[in-house]
Amino acid sequence: MVWKKHDYDDIPGTYVFDGKTAYQAYAVNKMLFSFNDESCRDEFEADPAAYCDKFGVAGAMKEAVLKKDFLGMLRLGCNIYFMAKMAIPRGVSVQDAGAAFQGISTKEFQAKLLKKRDGLEEKLAQVGGYWNG
Amino acid sequence: MARLLGGVTSSHIPAVGNAIANGLTQEHYWKRFFDGYEPAKAWLKKAAPDVIIVVYNDHGLNFFLDKVPTFALGCADWYHNADEGWGLKPVAPFQGDVQFSWHLAESLVEQEFDICTCQEMKVDHGFVNPIRALYGTLEHWPIKAIPLAVNTVQHPVPTAARCLKLGHALGKAIASYPEDLRVVIFGTGGLSHQLQGERAGLIDVDFDIECIEKIATEPEWLTRFSNSEIIARAGTEGIETIMWLVMRGALRDDAKVIHKHYHAPISNTGAGVLVLENS
Question: Is B125 a catalytic residue?
Answer without folding.
Answer: yes
